[in-house]
Predict the structure.
Amino acid sequence: MVRGAHQADRGVASSLRCDLLRNAGRGDCLTGQTMPHPAGAAPPSTWKQRRRKAVKNTGRWVTRNLAAFLGKQSLVGDLPVIETALFPHLQVFVDNFQTIRGEAETILKHRDAIPAFHDVSPDQHKISTGKNWRTFILYGFGERLEKNCTQAPFTAKLLSEVPHLQTAWFSILSPGYHIRPHRGVSKGILRAHLGLIIPKDAEKCRIRVGDVIKVWRPGEIFVFDDTYEHEVWNDTDEERVILLFDFDRPMRALGRAVNNSFIRLMKLTAFYQEPKKNMANFEARFEAAAKRYNDNLEKMSHED
C-alpha cells in the first residue's frame, strides 16, 4: 500500500509537471517537442516578465525585513548620512581628487560611448531616462572591469584598495535632470560620493538622503546609506560628474555573514546577470571608441 501510494504521488507530480511545462510553452514532457501555445494563454515572454516581477517583489520584501537587522549589526550607526571620519581610508580620494578628475575628463571626451544607467541595468528605467544619467563603470558587483579600468588606471588603483569594494563608476548627470526618489538594495552596503566636476551654482545641484540635504563640492567626499529614500536634482545648466562607489558596511560577524549570503543570492538573479552581460558589451564599445579617437589624433599629428 505504501509503495503504491508513493508511485501514485510520483504519477500525480509527473502529471502536474507536464501540465506546467505545457502551459509555459516549453514542450511535451514525453516527446520533448515544443507544444503550440494555448489560445488566449500568456506567451513565454509574459511568463518571464511575471517571474522577474515576482523575484523583484520578493527581493524588496527580503530587503525590508533585513534592513532593521543589519542596521542593528552596524558598527558605524544607522543614519542616512554617516560621519566620513569613520572611514579614514577614504582620505586618499580627497587628496588625489584632481588626478581622478583628470581621468574622468579624458573619459568624457568619448561621452557618446558612455551608456546611460538604464542601458546597463534595465531595472533602473524609472529613475534613468534618455541619456541624462550616464555611468562609466569601473567595478560591478565586486568584479573589476579591466578594459574600463585601463581608461582610469590611477582611480582604479585607489578603488582596489577600498576594503570590500562592491561597485564603482563615474556618475555623469545632465543639466536640469531630476532623479526621482528611490532606495538601494541592501543596508549591508554603504555608498561614497566624491565631487569631481560640479556646477558653479553648487547649491542647486544636490542630493536628499532621508531628511538630509547634501551638496557636492569638488574634492569633498561623503558617505550615506542608500536604503534611505534619496533623490537628486541638478537645477543648473552645467553637467555634474562624481565618483560613486559602494563598499560593505562595517558590521558584526553575524551581520556580515547574512549580508554576504544575500549578495550571493542576488547574483543568481537577472538583477545581476543582465547588467553583467551589458557591462561587458559597453566596455568593448567604449574601448573601440577610445581607440578610434586616439588613432585619429595620431593620424592628424602625422599630417601636421
